[in-house]
Amino acid sequence: METPIALLLTLSMASRPHNRNPNSPPHLKGHIFLFGNGTVPVARGDNPFANNALDGRQFLTHHMGFSKGEIERQRQLAVDYWLTKFKVDGEALEATANASIIEYQINPAVNERAYLVTEDCEIPAEGLLVLDGGFQLLITNPDGVPGFDPHTGHNVIFPYYTNLVFAWLRIEGCLEDDIVLPYKSSSLAEFTLRSIIFELDIGAHEYNPYGEGKLLGTSAPIVNGSTITNRLLNYITFEL
């Protein structure tokens, strides 16, 4: 398995422009690489990974600067997005105890850091601090709920613990202002024996200097007795 530094070099080389066929798709104009390797305690209850996230109200009010009214507005935007994209009514599911709409923040103990940023900036060896949080729709019905898979165009059953997000990344210390990248689920996560692979859409924001993009991520935590060592990799590309 490549180390983070080796992977950075691979991604950096892959993103450089080469002699290209003028009829080929344009190369991507930028990229950000995020890595989280922190350790958290195993949580009690049904979800041993619950300690990877915290309640998100502090993130929404302090780091995003949302008022109570703005939080409610953003929550409604999330509900509307999930209904349009995945044909799941989060509010109806929550009212019938089939799902929960949760405000979350990735636990700082996960140590999510940015190591490769498009704009020229000084990146220390420990990376740039990343703050990450927003809203998630978590399916809590053990039998799952009906939904729609936008990749296949088919109606499917969203299984227990399916997680859809509508949230923001903040990267501190690169530009004069924090970089703010809104993100939201673009497809259902794919589960392997030891990892989760997910895709997110990156949206426009006043403090997003790069524009819209895509995030491809994987999470492959290691459980060792009473602790979890995270292996979180997120690779963001931005389109011309």
Beta-strand content bin: 35-45%
Structural shape? globular
- Poorly predicted spans: 1-28
N-to-C order of helices and strands: HEEEHHHEEEEEEEEEEEEE
Separation of the first and last Cα atoms = 31 Å
Helical amount: 10-25%
The value of Rg in angstroms is 18 Å
Strands, total number: 16
* Mean of residue pLDDT values: 87
Strand line-up across the major sheet: 1-5-6-9-10-12-13-16
- Count of helical stretches: 4
Secondary-structure-derived class: alpha+beta
| Biggest pleated sheet | 8 strands, antiparallel, barrel
Topology readout:
Blueprint: H1 4-15, E1 30-36, E2 39-41, E3 53-55, H2 57-63, H3 68-86, H4 90-95, E4 99-106, E5 112-116, E6 128-139, E7 145-149, E8 154-158, E9 163-171, E10 179-185, E11 190-191, E12 196-202, E13 213-219, E14 222-224, E15 227-229, E16 232-238
Antiparallel strand pairs: 1-5, 1-16, 2-15, 3-4, 4-6, 5-6, 6-9, 7-8, 9-10, 10-12, 11-12, 12-13, 13-16, 14-15
Descriptive overview:
With 240 residues, this protein is an alpha+beta fold. The protein has helices at 4-15, 57-63, 68-86, 90-95; strands at residues 30-36, 39-41, 53-55, 99-106, 112-116, 128-139, 145-149, 154-158, 163-171, 179-185, 190-191, 196-202, 213-219, 222-224, 227-229, 232-238. It has a domain at 49-185. The protein is built from four helices and 16 strands. It is globular and about 50 Å long. The model is unreliable at 1-28 (pLDDT under 50).
